[in-house]
């Protein structure tokens, strides 16, 4: 099992750092029409007087990077590097009712989100390209429903990230702080509880790739330069399968999975799977999901970081 964990961690780091320029390894962004300019329906206007295709002008137009589209924007709509759907520690708005067998029924909620501060690039809110700076902040709270809906624990997260990319691949480099706290009601009812002040300040590097308009894969590595209880390294990887473009009122199915490996858990961690139905806004690009939630591994509340839990439940998630 230890070798499997190390292999998974190495794969995540490789996915983050490998320069898959222009998506050539995956064959992204190179449709037969782009490779064979002759006969392409949109080639009118790109043919020079000598009868050749102006490839530079053609590719600029296809990528949205022609001069008329490139500009600065304050508080842009949409994100170049979108949140990982099945990562329960992302900053977003969400609510889940979960059952942890042999323990209790909980209400887990994330209250917060991630927003763009400034962008140099295109103005497309759904699939923007360019360079962008994002800020995030959220509280991850767990309420024990049978115990008078007491606050069992809450994790706080905040950070900032620089992101850049195009329609096919994106990169993120940033910083986040996370700290965990036990609830007052839980401490009063469990005075002998071993209180651990889990916290970490982390530099992260992530890469994501769209294989098509539905399927995205990603990997991320994080290194904590300051920490308490936790150790230095963490890795995560996974996939999101859902429509990238706006849906009608009927919506579309989605499927997502995430593996999060942490050094303090001997490079174990957790697996999360989610499936259900999703709607994406036509003008905003914002995403609403409802569906089933499954989690297996070390606790998603880091005050109990070394406890094992299996979550079964139903959730609602809202992302930009």
Topology (elements, then pairings):
Elements: H1 2-17, H2 32-35, H3 55-63, E1 71-74, E2 93-100, E3 104-121, E4 130-144, E5 150-165, E6 169-182, H4 184-189, E7 199-210, E8 215-228, E9 233-241, E10 252-262, E11 268-280, E12 287-298, E13 308-319
Antiparallel strand pairs: 1-3, 2-3, 2-13, 3-4, 4-5, 5-6, 6-7, 7-8, 8-9, 9-10, 10-11, 11-12, 12-13
What does this structure look like?
This protein has 320 residues and is mainly beta. It folds into 2 domains: 2-26 and 68-319, Beta Barrel (Outer membrane phospholipase (ompla), Chain C); 32-63, no CATH class. 11% of the residues lie in helices and 49% in strands. The protein contains 4 helices and 13 strands. It has helices at 2-17, 32-35, 55-63, 184-189; strands at 71-74, 93-100, 104-121, 130-144, 150-165, 169-182, 199-210, 215-228, 233-241, 252-262, 268-280, 287-298, 308-319. The chain has a 12-stranded antiparallel beta barrel with strand order 2-3-4-5-6-7-8-9-10-11-12-13. Strand 8 and strand 9 form a beta hairpin. The longest helix has 16 residues, at 2-17. It is globular and about 60 Å long. It starts with a helix and ends with a strand.
What labels describe this entry?
2 domains, single chain, 12-stranded antiparallel β-barrel, 13 strands, mainly beta, Outer membrane phospholipase (ompla), Chain C, 11% helix, 320 residues
């Amino acid at each position: 099992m230890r070798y499997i964990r190390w292999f998974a961690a190495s794969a995540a780091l490789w996915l983050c750092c490998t320069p898959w320029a222009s998506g050539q390894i995956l064959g992204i962004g190179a449709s037969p029409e782009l490779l064979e300019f002759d006969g392409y329906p949109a080639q009118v206007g790109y043919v020079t007087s000598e009868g050749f295709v102006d490839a530079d002008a053609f590719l600029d137009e296809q990528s949205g990077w022609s001069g008329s589209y490139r500009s600065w924007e304050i508080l842009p709509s949409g994100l170049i590097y979108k949140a990982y759907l099945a990562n329960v520690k992302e900053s977003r708005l969400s609510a889940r009712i979960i059952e942890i067998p042999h323990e209790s029924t909980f209400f887990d909620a994330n209250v917060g989100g991630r927003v763009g501060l400034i962008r140099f690039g295109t103005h497309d809110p759904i699939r923007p390209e360019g360079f962008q700076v994002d800020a995030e902040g959220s509280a991850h709270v767990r309420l024990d429903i049978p115990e008078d809906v007491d606050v069992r624990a809450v994790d706080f997260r905040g950070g900032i990230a620089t992101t850049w990319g195009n329609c096919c691949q994106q990169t993120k480099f940033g910083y986040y702080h996370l700290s965990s706290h036990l609830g007052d009601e839980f401490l009063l009812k469990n005075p002998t509880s071993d209180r651990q002040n889990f916290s970490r300040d982390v530099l992260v590097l992530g890469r994501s790739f769209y294989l098509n308009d539905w399927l995205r894969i990603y990997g991320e590595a994080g290194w904590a330069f300051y920490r308490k209880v936790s150790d230095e390294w963490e890795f995560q990887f996974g996939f999101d399968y859902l429509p990238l473009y706006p849906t009608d009122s009927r919506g579309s199915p989605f499927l997502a999975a995430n593996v999060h490996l942490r050094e303090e858990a001997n490079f174990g961690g957790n697996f999360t799977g989610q499936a259900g139905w999703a709607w994406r806004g036509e003008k905003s690009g914002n995403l609403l999901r409802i569906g089933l939630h499954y989690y297996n591994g070390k606790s998603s509340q880091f005050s109990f970081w070394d406890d094992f839990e299996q979550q079964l439940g139903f959730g609602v998630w809202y992302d930009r």
